[in-house]
Amino acid sequence: MSTTRNLISVLDLPVETIIHIFSYLDYKDLYSVVLVNRFLHEIFVSSPEVEYAEALQLAGLTDYDDLYENGSSALSAPRINIREKLAELKRHETAWRILGGGGTHDYYGSKRTTVKLNHRASHIYDLSAGVYLLGDCKEDVATRDTHTLRIFDLSTCGSENKTDRKNWEKPDIRDEVWPEITVPTSIVDVGMCLEEFDLIAIVGLKRDDSLQEDTIFLHLRQLSTGLPHPLAREPDIVLGKARHVWGKMSIMLEIVGPRLVLLMTWRGLIFVQHRVQAGWDTLLLINWWDGRIIQKECELNQTWEGFVFLSPDYLLLPEYCRARGIDVLRLPDVTAPPQDTSTNENEESSTGTGNTRSENFVGCGNASDTKRFERVFHFPFPTLKPFITFIGVYSRSEPNPFGEPHPDWDRQRSCLRSKLENETDLNRLNNQRRFGARGHHFIAKPKSEDALVLLKCTFREQVENHAGQAHWNIVRHSLSLTMRRRSLLDLMNQYFEEHGTIDSTSTDDIADQSDQSPSQMNEFDLSQYLMNPLSVFGPRPNPINRDKIPKVPWEVWGKFARWHADDLHASNWITTSAGQRFVGMDENLNIVVKDYNPITVRRVMFKDSICPKKRDMMESGSNASEDEADVEMAVENEIEASSAEDEEKELRLPSWIDSSWDNLEIVDRYSGRELQELNHLFRDKIPPPLPCVEASQNFETRELEDMGLLYDSLLVDEERIIGLTYDEDTGSITRFDVLTM
């Protein structure tokens, strides 16, 4: 018997099954399949399930329900049907294109809410998963010493469907007292991991003026209750000590799965007997589930400023002092049990039951517990011109990838919900609102692998005076560099596919300073001398032998990045990117958003090629573009002649093109001002930038002033833009607008 009789065609399947299959296809494969016949095409155009799955892919988003049900997310979205989700997604994307209207727009897209502060904000802040956190320095105006954190739930803004000009001219006003979290130490800074674990990690100092030193604590709290986190075996960990003479301490903290990565730096040099004393830049990897410090690496003061999780197992660590590039670190497994008893002793001391770790100074580079992380790749920065020096590289990428789920998290989450339903006193943090059941929580979130990596780079230029003598700190330059996580991962994977898996260096090998090429050693780099802590900690750390570390030259990976070298995106804050979007203000103080979603870029290119407003009618038989995206978009939107009988075939605009797309402009080259700045700083050639589409408001400055839309700075997350207003005397935030998309 022939086996072909047993084969089943996809056309024989029930329509519900075909729809289910379509919803899992990549959008390119979906467009190919629906060309098979009219039956499959009819299913494609008539099914909201398929249309929603396609819309998520085109927007680069993931449905929150999927993340919540598989245990990745601690948050859940409102339970609404597919048609409502599709309508909400379309409204959301349209709002990002319009940005609050201006000009001829009647529909303003986003919803404006003004929030007034009833506390004195300190320098501490964070923004993640719809939660805005600000420090409260109470009455300590001079030092802004902070023991209290204030929490504001941004998802409660814009819950009503108000998207007209009236809402923008007279927005809703919020003037309540924010819920707070208080710790017994002086807070340095915080990090949040809300979507995975409802976790806030707080680094604080307990001063001892008699010994002129500080004890460093790590507090692990659950945001929804303000109580010690139930998954943390030790919710208050002693990390070690720091000396007062090291100067002001700064930290950066990120959490993915069980891994908590903490970077501690000290600034503000103090000269003592002609020697410079400063703590080492210290990078810690901690398993926050059981409170163990897994690994510690130290480097010269002012080598690191920040880092980014490239994936749950890899870390991007920009180094601007010697290597002048981005190292990729492979993180060890933190869930493996300790290998020897010494780890257990350290574990006891971290919880306060011993004194081994508490007596250690964390910024001591030659301590026995330091070990370099494994470097597996390097992305060098372009070579600087003489008399130009890096003085800082800050970093951010939001959202973070999801890591390994805790085995008890589902049970803990269920217990928490039960308690919150029966014991309202545990819910005091959010004014009787459970964090997992917030107000207007959007249905989807950006994919972490597509999110932008943002590096905020500052440079110092040495300028000669008329007498020919050089002076430092005369000219300061600030630029931002953006690229996508996926691009960096793809470059690494491509390299290893072509060259094979290379055993990366243990990075404990010694490399002599003479190994550095001239391009790695800038003339008159005073920081090489001033930032070396000579007296307290002994010799400097062994330099890394970078000959064994694979790298991709700047002229290759620079094609997947973009410098922002004008004042458009100048900001005091690093929180100016989320997902694939990057915000700024133009010279008229209108909000500008750059969207790096490559699908959106191709759609705008396609729309511009066929839209009569952008171009005359295409010549008969000519193609809109040679880009393969034209075929994809043509299939998606059924671009066809209005009638085969017409002698002159007119183009019919796709159904997805509306007036909101007229506000988008392709940006695929640097402006003259940007090129001038880049050529002034860098010796290497700067390749064409990563293309993006730009949306902007279209208000006159007077209109912005009349409506109260003149902001001192901007923040952004996946769902909204926040416009900040400062007090002119103190520089503190006094109010902010929430523009919910």
TrEMBL record:
Domain F-box: 7-55
Composition skew (Polar residues), residue ranges: 338-359
InterPro entries recorded: F-box-like_dom_sf, F-box_dom
Pfam families: F-box-like
SMART domains cross-referenced by the UniProt entry: FBOX
Chain segments carrying region Disordered: 334-361
Protein name (record): F-box domain-containing protein
Protein species of origin: Pyrrhoderma noxium
